Amino acid sequence: MNKFNIYENIEYSSSKVQITSMFESDASKEIRIVFTQGQIMKDHKTSYPITVEIFEGTIEFGVKDQSYTLIKGDIVSLEASVVHNLKALENSIVRLSLSKADSVKRVSGVLKL
User: Fold this and answer.
1) Whose CA is closest to 94, among 68, 62, 67, 61?
2) H/E segment holding residue 110
3) pTM
4) How far is CA 59 from CA 37, 44, 71, 97, 106, in A?
5) End-to-end CA distance of the chain, in Å?
6) Are 32 and 82 in contact (CB under 8 A)?
7) Sorting pLDDT into bands at 50, 70 and 90, what band is 106?
8) For 56-79, how does the pLDDT look when each residue is reduced to its tens digit (9 = 90+)?
9) CA distance 37 to 58
10) Which residues are within 8 A (CB) of 15 and not within 5 positions of it... i.e. 6 or more apart?
11) What digits encode the pLDDT tens for the residues 19-45?
12) Largest CA distance in the chain
């Protein structure tokens, strides 16, 4: 069993998006991403499918040439190799589910684009 409270030890940082590895299961890696209003993750893609869930706040989620406003409770999934980006319209907490074969390091690298 793995346990993590997504609301514990939240830190909104004006200098960078906060990425925390929550846990790994047999099938996935679970990551918490904490955005301060206005922070972005520029266009990027992954070699594996992902699932994104909004726990708090509002995220502008860009996919290809479309933009979607995601609010608390929204969940989206993307297939591999789909270019996407995120912008926090307000302070936000996002859960990202990655394939076991993907890496937290890759996600952190997106912030350096």
Assistant:
1) 61
2) helix 104-110
3) 0.93
4) 9, 16, 7, 16, 21
5) 35
6) no
7) confident
8) 999 999 998 899 999 999 999 999
9) 9
10) none
11) 999 999 998 999 999 999 999 999 999
12) 40
Virtual torsion, Cα 60, 64, 102, 86, nearest 10 deg:
-20
Compute the distance between CA of residue 95 and CA of residue 32 in angstroms, rounded to an integer: 5
Three-class secondary structure of residue 99 per DSSP: strand
Q: Measure Cα distances from 72 to 4, 75, 105 in Å.
A: 19, 9, 26
Could you tell me the sign of the dihedral formed by the alpha carbons of 99, 103, 108, 113, in that order? negative
Domains of the chain: 18-110 (2.60.120.10)
Number of residues in the chain = 113
Flag whether pLDDT at 94 surpasses 90.
yes
| Exposure string over 55-71, b if 16+ CB within 10 A, otherwise e | bbbbbebbeeeeeeebe
Q: Find the helix or strand (DSSP H, E) in which 26 lies.
A: none
